Amino acid sequence: MRVIHFTQPAADPLKSFDSTGASFLPLADGEGDTNISCLHLEMDGKVESPSLSHAAALLIAHGRVTIEQSPGPRIHFSGGKGALFEQNEPYTLKSETGAIILIVEAQQLTAHTRRLNATKDRGRQLAQ
């Protein structure tokens, strides 16, 4: 076992993607172009148009994040929620409160349909 620290002091300031108040930490590399990383957003932090070379799953581990697409929706996320983006699908991340985001990148990612818009499943036991 290898222990991975993804606390903010372990991360490096993110200077690309017109970022402010953001720090980034690569966590693990998989086969091919599969990567897992962590993004820390400080209060009022933002990252505009992150890398579009991979599909990406953004998993909000802590805090609140607004993900915007232009043109497109502006959606507010809190811990325990996330979003899946296809390769070349642009988005912007912003946080008024600060956030910790785990990022999984690969050539292609497909969400399990069981977890898409899971809020409608609240209060109902899911089949195993």
CATH topology: Jelly Rolls
CATH homologous superfamily designation: Jelly Rolls
**Termini gap:** 29 Å
What helical percentage do the residues reach? under 10%
**Annotated CATH architecture:** Sandwich
Order of helices and strands: EEEEEEEE
Percentage beta strand: over 45%
The biggest sheet amounts to: 8 strands, antiparallel
The number of domains? 1
Rounded average pLDDT: 84
* Number of helices, counting only DSSP H or I runs of 4 residues or more: 0
Q: What would the principal axes of the Cα set say about the shape?
A: globular
Number of strands: 8
What is the CA-atom radius of gyration, in angstroms?
A: 15 Å
CATH class call: Mainly Beta
What are the segments in which pLDDT stays under 50 over at least 5 consecutive residues? 119-128
SS-based class: mainly beta
Structure, explained:
It is a single chain. The chain is mainly β and 128 residues long. 0% of the residues lie in helices and 48% in strands. The protein is built from no helices and 8 strands.
Features:
128 residues; globular; 8-stranded antiparallel sheet; mainly beta; Jelly Rolls; 48% strand
Concise structural overview:
0% of the residues lie in helices and 48% in strands. It is built from no helices and eight strands. Strands 1, 2, 3, 4, 5, 6, 7 and 8 form an eight-stranded antiparallel β-sheet that branches.
